[in-house]
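Q: Sequence in, structure out?
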Amino acid sequence: MPVLVIRPATTKDSEGIWEIFHLVVQTGDTYAFAPDTSRADALAYWLSPQVQTFVAMQNDQVVGTYILRPNQPGLGRHVANASYMVHPAIQGQGIGRAMGEHSLEAARQAGYLAMQFNLVVSTNQAAVALWQKLGFRIVGTLPRAFRHQQLGYVDAHVMYQWLGEPPAAATE
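A: Exactly. Output:
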């Protein structure tokens, strides 16, 4: 099995990120992005200066990508949010898990105290199971909050994980 390297993305990774984004989003079954999201809009979002973008590389190819950002501004900024995509041709090979583990450590290193996923589509059973294995809990279910392209309106979960205690100065 080829070695997987996860590193910060650069603009040189744009084509690989776009290929994955387009393939994942066009199915309309896991992300709220419109299936016809343009390359320009996708890359403007995924490579925005307001997010940390990472790529998972195998054999010098982008095989996965994720972004890490604050879930909310200001007083909610200590909670991270992340989004992940794996090339559909190689899903199920541990790349998502590796990126999930990497993101939890990156979040801790960036000073986040928790991570929250706002919209995990309930029918995306592989993602729900993975996040639960990595320590996330379903803290809420939003009835019919996602318009699945094949199934119609389906539930979405809010998932959460506490990462650590704040420094003493932050609680005083």
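The longest strand covers residues 137-148.
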